[in-house]
Design a protein that fits this description.
single chain, alpha+beta, Porin, 41% strand, elongated
Amino acid sequence: MHITKNRFSTFIDYSAAIVFFVASGALGLHAQQSAGTAPSLPPISIKASLAAPLDLSTPDDLKYSSSVGSEEMADAETFNLGAGEDQPPPRRRYGHPNYSDSHTNADGSAKYSFIVGGGFTLPVGDSHNYLSTSYDFQAGVGRNFSKKFGVQAEFNWANFGFPTSTLNKQLVIYNSTCPNAGGCGLTQLGGTSHIWSFTLDPIANFYESDTLGAYVIGGGGFYHKTANFTIPSIGTYCDPFYGCFQYQANQTIDKYTSNAFGVNVGAGMTYKFSRFASERFYVEARYVYTFNSERAFSFGDSSGNNFNVFPQNSDKTGFIPITFGIRF
């Protein structure tokens, strides 16, 4: 039994030694092969790599194949979706949007506009000698063909007063027309003058931003001029519930009218309250000139015909209305 155990131990020892030598040889051979066959790596230059241009082309080893043929892939890469090879790739066209409809022009501007405003008048030239500053009113409608050009149909009312020198001269004239020695006995004279008109005025907008704008305007039309002289009087008014009472009133004693063709030219500025608003505040100044036909001074005949003691109403008239208003 002892002999058998010694033989078994000797066999185990020989087997372990053989396995150790075989493993050592294999490791040494693998290390030798790795050292002899390992390729040498090229040196890396970071500066040269950063200076070199980028190559964004797809490497050959990353290309893939599919069921799509090479001809179809070439057509897709050149955006050529047609079957023919001679068809050029489609081109994208860019332009201004077209907003044209019944209320809007192609450039986005409104086809129609409305104006309303008021201000004051300044008589100039010879008109300054017998007229004084008063108020002005304006209203109109416009047809816009684009953001730059349009035309406006306008109604304008320019009111004037009479300076004291004009009223005093007229008071002397009216008192001298009465046959009695004391004259007509007039001690006080008042009066006003006005010109209303209908005109057609082209307008050109030469500057426009999100909030500010500037334009020039001019045109012509029909002008009606009136002068009205009054004296203070007492009027009576009767009400069915409260009875009759008296009030201070002005009685017209003389009136003149004159019709003429006239022209106007001017410029203005606009201010939009916000970039999204359609309403604009505007201020403008124009020069207006009317071509009235002059008439001579005349007391008239015994029947009172051709009585004209204020021929200035028929003189050519020049004035400057300065108007503030809203354009929408």
